[in-house]
Structures are given as C-alpha cells and as structure tokens.
Amino acid sequence: MQLLLALAGALDRLGRVAGKTVRWLAVLLVLIQFAVVVLRYAFGTSYIWLQESVLYTNATLFMLAIAYTFLVDQHVRVDLLYARWSARRRALVDLSGILLAVLPFCGLVIWASWGYVAVSFRMGEGPMQVGGLPLLPFLKSLIPAMATLLALQALAIALRCLAVLAGRAPTHLPHRGGHGAPEAAG
Amino acid sequence: MSASGLGGVLDALMFASLCGLILTGLPVVFVLTGCAVVFAAFGTALGVFDPFLLRALAQRVFGTMTSEVLVAIPLFVFMGIMLERSKIAEELLEAMGSLFGRIRGGLAVSVSAVGALLAASTGIVGATVVTMGLMALPAMLRRGYDKGFATGSICAAGTLGQIIPPSTVMVILGEVLSAAYQQAQLAQGKFTIETVSVGQLFAGAMIPGLLLVGLYVLYQLLRAWLDPAIAPSIPREELGTVGARRLLSVLVPPLVLIVAVLGSILGGIATPTEAASVGAVGATLLAARRQGGAAARLAPIAGLAALGLALLGALFDMRLGRELVPTGDRAAMAGAAFLVLVLAIGLLSALWSLGRAGVLGRVCESTTTISAMIFATLIGATLFSLVFRGLGGEETVRELLAVLPGGTWGALAIVMAVMFLMGFFLDFVEITIIVIPIVGPVLLAMGIDPIWLGVLIAINLQTSFLTPPFGFALFYLAGVAPKEVGARDIYRGIVPFVALQLLALSIVAAFPPLATWLPRALF
After folding, report:
1. Does A180 touch chain B (CB under 8 A)?
2. DSSP per-residue codes, A157-175
3. Chain B residues in contact with A23 (beta carbon < 8 A)
4. Contacts of B236 (CB under 8 A, 6+ apart)
5. Model-level pTM?
6. What is the DSSP letter of B51?
7. Is ipTM > 0.85 here?
C-alpha cells in the first residue's frame, strides 16, 4: 500500500506540473487574440498563422488541463448526496466511476484517435488553411495525449480510493478546490 | 423483439441511467462518458449498435478543438474573473446605494441595477453573488430589510449575467444550437443551410434581458411600496452623498467595457471571440489599477491608447504593406505605432504587477479549470449523443414529441418543463450540452425559430441557478451570508423571482418578436 500511495503521489505531481504550466497559456491566449484584433482593426492586416495559433493555444490549454481539473476536483458534480456521504462511500463512488467510466473512455479515445493521428503524421499533413501553422499532426496528437494524461490521473485517484477503503488515507481528493473563490461559469 | 425495438428500449434506458447516475455525485462529464461506453457495449453485444460509429469521435473532438467560436469561452471567463479583482462591483454598489437609497426598496433596486451593469460586461454568477452577498446584504439587513427579500434580490441580480450578453453560457448555447439547426435542415433535405450565430443569439437575448431587469425592479418597488417594513427607505442625512464626479468615475470603466465589447458584437464589427479578448485586456487594465505602483498609473494611459488606436483605425487607412501611402495615412500610422507601444508597455506592466501579486496566477488557474470542465463536458456529451443516436434515440425522441397533444407548442412546452425540472439538479452548461443535441434537431425541424428557441432556453435555464437544492446562486450566497440568514430565508426569498422568471418566459413565448426583432434589425 505504501508503494501504491507513493506511485499515486508521483502521478499527482506530474498532473500538478502539467496543470500549473498550461494555465499560463490563458494569458498567451488573451495576448495573441488581442494582437489579432489590433492588427485587423487598426492595421487592416491579418495573418492566418496568427489566427491558427489562437486555436492551437486554446486547444492545448483545455485538452492538457482536463486531467488536472480532475485532480483538483473541479469537474462539476451534483453533490446533493455526495457531500453528505462518508469518505469511504465517496471513494467507492469515484472508484467505480473511474473503472466503469473514466478508464474505458480514455481507452476508447485512444482507440478512436490512434489511426486518425497516425495517418496525419504519415502523410505529413499540411496546415488547415494555406498560410497556417504546419503543425496539424501535433495538434491532433493532443487527443490521445488528453486521454493518456486523464488515465494516469484517474489511476492515481483510484489508488488513493483503495487506500481510503483500506483505512490508510483520509480522503482520495487531497488537492481538492482552487482558492475558495466561487466561480461558476457565467 | 425486433432489433430496432431493442434499440428503442436501450436509448430510453440510457437516458434514464444518465439522470439516475448524475445523482451519485460522479462528475457529470464522467457520467456522460460512462453511460456512453456501457450502452455502446450493450448495443454492440445485442447487435443494435455499430461500434465503428465511434471512430467519428476523433473527428468530433478535433472539431471542438478548432472551433473559433468556442475560443470565446476561456476569454470571457478570464475577463469575468479579472473583472472581479478590479473591484468595480464594489464601487458600483456603493454609488448606486447612495443614489437609490432614499426610496423604499432602493437598495434592492440598486442591486438589480448593478447586476445588470455587471452582466453587460460579462458577469460571472458566482463572483457577482458573492460580492453582493458580502457588501449589499449586510447593508440591507442593517437597514431592516426583510431577509428573504434581500437575499432573493441578490441571487436574482447575480444570475442576470447568464441572459444579458455577453455571456459565456450563451456562447455554448449558440454553438450547440447552431449544430442542431444544421442537423435539422440536413434531415429535411435542404441544400442551402441557414446558420445561427452567437452574435445573433446575443442580440436576441438583449431585449428579454432588459425586460427581466425591468420586471425585477418593478416588483421590488411595488413590494416595498405595499409593505414598507420589508424594505424601508434610508433617511437622507444618513446617506453619504455621491457627487456627479464620483458617479462618473465609477460608471465610466464598466460603460467603456460594455460599449467596446457588447457594442462591437451587436454592431456586427467584431466576432464574440475578438470582442472577448478586448474585454479581457480591458479587465486586466482595470484590475491593475488596484495593484498600485507604476502599473496602476500606466493602466489608464494604456486604456486611452487603445481608444486612440480604435479611433485612428476608424479614421485612416493604415493597412500594412501598401506600396504608396499618402502622407496623412503615413502620419496616422506613425501615431498608431506609438500608441501600440504605449498599450503594450501598459499591458505588460499590468500583467507583471498582477503576476507578482499572485492575482494573475489565480485568474489563470480558474480560467483553466473552468474551461477544461466546460470543454470536457462538451466532449463527453458528443460521445453520449453519438451512442444515443446510434441506438436510434433521435427517432424515439421524435416519436415521443410527435404523439404529444398540442403539436409544436406541446413539444416546446414539454421540453421547457423538462429543462426547468433538470435545473433543480444541474446548471445551465450541463443542461444545454446534454439536452439540446437530443431534442434540438427535432424541435427545429418543426419550424421553430432557432433564436427564439435559444432565448427561451436561456431564460428558462437562468432558473437553474435559483432553484434549490442545486441553485449555484443560492449556494454561493449561503456561503457568505451573515449567520442570522438561514437557508430557509434564502429559499423563501427566491420564490417570487423564479415566478418573475417564468412570467418573462411566458411573455417572450407569447411575443416572439421580443427575441427575433433585434437580431433581424442588426444582422
């Protein structure tokens, strides 16, 4: 159990590093899109590669943050009952969810995207539009990358669920919550 | 049982499992993917589902990743959270309070007015409710306001951000609605596909949003006039006076943002995504004013530079890369280059000072997790509807809605009722993402106007933030309310506002031009 918890901790650190790194893409996204606006409306000029880099930045931001969002437990739950349940029961719910929903989903995404990405690399697929970024295969790689990161994060949480069920850990979501600032999308 | 009959049972079971499993508290996105995976497996085993349909998943996810419209989501979220740090909500509340305080129910009216102003500069429900709960609620209680009346006013005002454009959830609504609309037209065999854009939806929601604010204010004044004990007026001498100068300095920043962001979208000048980035930059400059130091002094100058740049862009032809440039344009371009430099310095120093204070990191963190949550739910729902449709679910929904009495109106009414009930447990984003792909194509194929439908859905789903046990607005307010305010006061207080909401829904349902006139006039 010690070993498994250490493994979970290592996977968590990976997820945290990924999340804490990609979050800065939010600023980059604002700056690039604003630059596009200034160039277009003040100087009547637009570059397709710059517009595409907005899409690339946004896609990278959210695809690589889906796993991290699970780690900090910010995927919306209906916690009407969940919030009142014991830590053991919550761990049981999340463990079943990971085994029945998260891991098969990750497997499915990898299965469905593997050929899609491989073909793109093999053919050396060009940009989406003429004058765009020639990085399309890498953009498509974000799909299996998202699934892989999510699977690893789910594994870490599942291991901690087991620890909770065995009475070796108080909670399976120790990194829960951001900063206490309530920010429902609006 | 025939194969198609079996599919008909499986898709119904799939939807029932979705509703049931959501209550276990598993994240909604995983309930969606879990139901999809399990029922795809069942369907395959029973020979009523073709697993190769799932190959389309990669292409669909890629479509979500490269949607230009959806980029507006992180940008609007960033803008909203940054705006919260700029404290304009606090300043507005103070100014409006002293402006309206003398009339009965005046503090409640000022809460509605501030809610509307924040909503028009992309209000975020949680942030608005919390800010008002911390500032306006204690003030109202001290003045002897009824607890329910005060809390109801705050929760309702906080949710105006959903309906009054620009709003993040309307971006999502616009995207899924336009997909459903295309599907409906394809199914009817139309070759020239009409589209519905987020900008049109924003325009459609404008008048109904203002109608709602009007209803709130009317109700507040009427209640206070009939029963002065629940919302007494404040004696003139106890009110701090607010000078015209102060009022102007408080009102100008949000008004500039509203004109720049909302104005450019409704004017058809900029796309919502483009306008959102301008809003995000504006909010960053406003937040930097709070940090002190050089950045605070540079922020207003950078804001002026941005305005100057917009003006120059409108007056002169400054296209880059022309061979011959007239002298006037050349001078304008030199001026513009200087303004860009000023703007860049101001913006970077604002980001730097916000970064050092740790504010920027927190804003990015929230932007990232909220966006990831929304996009993950979109992807989960894509998979869900892929399987649901593969099992023949769309056919089942069409048959179900067709046998209802009342034709189109009956179908619309039942969908609205289901969405309203779902609002007790889920919120706007999830309901939109789950329900519209399922019922949208069927309803739109019946000839319902997509903008009108979108606005009706938006007004209806605004109640999802207000209905217990799972109204986000109630939840957040309960978190910050003083101890003497109980959950019962909050629940009691929200009832009249939910009723007003349903009244607005019926008004817009009865008079579709309220939603459809403005978009037709503008676009």
Report:
1. no
2. HHHHHHHHHTTS-S-S-TT
3. 361, 364-365, 367-368
4. B102
5. 0.91
6. G
7. yes
